[in-house]
Design a protein that fits this description.
Oligomer: single chain
Number of helices: 19
Radius of gyration: 29 Å
Strand content: 5-15%
Strand order of the largest sheet: 5-2-1-6-7-8
Distance between the termini: 48 Å
Helix content: 40-55%
Number of strands: 13
Length: 522
């Protein structure tokens, strides 16, 4: 590396340079597909999330200024099983953009192949990027193709550190000898599981949260994310911990974070053990009701000629018109083993993963899916998982939902796994609910309305939760108030709780269905 490059990259003053990420996507996708068998939207999304974490770790304190994935996303292959063309990369761009990775469409050269075109474009972009920006210190290549060796040599001559991430059994071994650092993607997955990649980040969040609460005593959920970001000096993202939002993060990891959660006046609050909880709406309402009852007794005493108690003024005539919030019923107080955090953990982290999203978003997604599956005259349409995923994601993105693709994909998983759709493609799977989700399907005859669809999914989730509670030794009934907060949110309206009670009874009365084979799904 020459001195001018060192100076430009910031070595002379101790600052950090930048890093770039370039992904040979078709190489990565096909290699992972061959290694694990079933590989579609869910598996690809999980791999991208893991890859993003690895890149953050590998780049260390460098800023990753470019994240690109190269492929011909319109490429197709013929399915030998069904004789149809499979555009297997068409779903990839949305998943990439969800994680801040720019999909680069590479068209096939006349007489050439898709693969060669993507390789050439990726190599050309790498050379141009490092030539134009002398702050680039590191290039992370995700590929197993030895055709990139000339590029690697060129980058190293320019003083760039080259890191290669390849897929096991699909990486040319000669590639390992030319780069500065090589990692197998599968090895990184195992290392993350063994060492607990999330544990380090969680410990950082724990230390930041404790530092904040030591000064503030207790804080509402809404204030936590910006304060942790300020304490860490970088954006805090709860989705890194597979949580939908900050409140979800605090409830899921409250024990490991070493904090207590309690209901505040206008929001849930978090505090350190030993810190007194703030007043709640229910407590204030109870105190108000007690004071009101005491005042009424004083009025009655005065009416009988008794003197008022010392220091007590007779209540005004308008005192009785003040609305009083009803305290929470004792029957809605959950047992220790039944909590929002426990329910969320069992649903999210046990197989299959069942992600619960905010009620209004879930209702929007299920309504969109139902409208795509049934026309205005009530006639069922032939649909497939990918078509529903694309259409639902578009609707949610226009509505401004964060992680729209992830939320629609998770909702569809529950719809298909609960048996809302049956296969309509001619063949051995026709009429079955445990079919491969690339095939066309229709809503089952039993689902004649949007409400029927939602009821079936909720019963499936409740049965799954009941089974998972029993698997960890909790055999007491599901707590309705906790379940209501998990599925419908805090302070759900009475009609939602009434419906949930009905569904809970239905799920408890019916026998649990055996889990369907996951190879049949997407």
């Amino acid at each position: 590396m020459n001195n001018s490059h060192q100076h430009a990259a910031g070595y002379s003053n101790g600052s950090h340079g930048s890093s770039i990420l370039l992904i040979d996507l078709e190489n990565f996708y096909l290699a992972r597909e061959q290694n694990i068998g079933v590989y579609a939207a869910t598996e690809f999304s999980v791999d991208l999330e893991a890859l993003s974490r690895f890149v953050t770790e590998v780049s260390s304190e460098r800023r990753v200024t470019v994240r690109r994935a190269y492929a011909n996303y319109n490429t197709a292959r013929q399915s030998s099983e069904f004789g149809r063309w499979d555009f297997f990369l068409q779903k990839a761009p949305k998943a990439l953009m969800e994680r801040g990775i720019e999909p680069v469409q590479v068209f096939r050269f006349p007489g050439g192949g898709n693969k060669n075109a993507a390789d050439m474009r990726m190599a050309m972009d790498a050379s141009v990027l490092v030539a134009e920006n002398h702050r680039i210190e590191q290039c992370i290549l995700v590929t197993g193709d030895a055709d990139f060796i000339p590029l690697i040599l060129d980058l190293k001559r320019r003083g760039i550190e080259v890191v290669v991430i390849g897929v096991r059994a699909h990486t040319k071994t000669v590639l390992l000898r030319y780069c500065d650092r090589f990692e197998y993607f599968e090895d990184l997955l195992v290392a993350a599981e063994v060492e607990g990649d999330m544990a380090g980040q969680l410990e950082e969040a724990r230390a930041a949260l404790h530092a904040i609460l030591a000064r503030k005593q207790r804080l509402p959920f809404a204030a936590i994310k910006p304060l942790i970001s300020r304490q860490l000096r970088r954006p805090f993202d709860p989705t890194r911990f597979d949580c939908e939002n900050t409140g979800d993060f605090l409830r899921t990891f409250s024990e490991r974070l070493g904090v207590l959660i309690s209901e505040g006046l206008n929001d849930w609050e978090v505090r350190l053990p030993g810190t007194e909880a703030g007043p709640t709406v229910a407590a204030l309402a109870q105190a108000h009701a007690s004071a009101h009852a005491s005042a009424k007794l004083d009025v009655a005493a005065l009416a009988n000629g008794a003197a008022p108690a010392a220091g007590v003024e007779p209540p005004s005539a308008s005192a009785s018109s003040v609305p009083v919030a009803a305290p929470r019923s004792p029957e809605l107080t959950p047992a220790v083993e039944h909590s929002v955090a426990v329910y969320h953990k069992l649903l999210r982290f046990r197989r299959p993963n069942l992600h619960i999203i905010p009620l209004h978003e879930w209702e929007t997604i299920t309504a969109a899916i139902y409208d795509m599956a049934v026309d205005a005259n009530g006639v069922r349409r032939d649909v497939d998982h990918q078509k529903l995923l694309d259409g639902g994601s578009d609707i949610c993105e226009r509505a401004g939902y964060e992680m729209a693709y992830h939320k629609v994909n998770g909702s569809l998983f529950q719809l298909f796994k609960s048996g809302c759709f049956v296969c309509t493609t001619e063949g051995p799977e026709k009429g079955r609910s445990d079919f491969h989700w690339t095939l066309t399907a229709q809503l089952t005859p039993e689902i004649d309305s949007l409400e029927a669809l939602r009821r079936r999914v909720r019963v499936f989730v409740i049965r799954s939760l009941k089974s998972r509670l029993e698997s960890v030794g909790i055999h007491t009934p599901i707590d309705l108030s906790v379940l209501s907060e998990v599925l419908d949110g805090h302070n759900a309206p009475p009609e939602k709780q009434a419906l949930l009670r009905e569904l809970l009874d239905a799920a408890s009365a019916a026998p649990l269905e055996p889990a369907k084979g996951f190879a049949a799904g997407v």
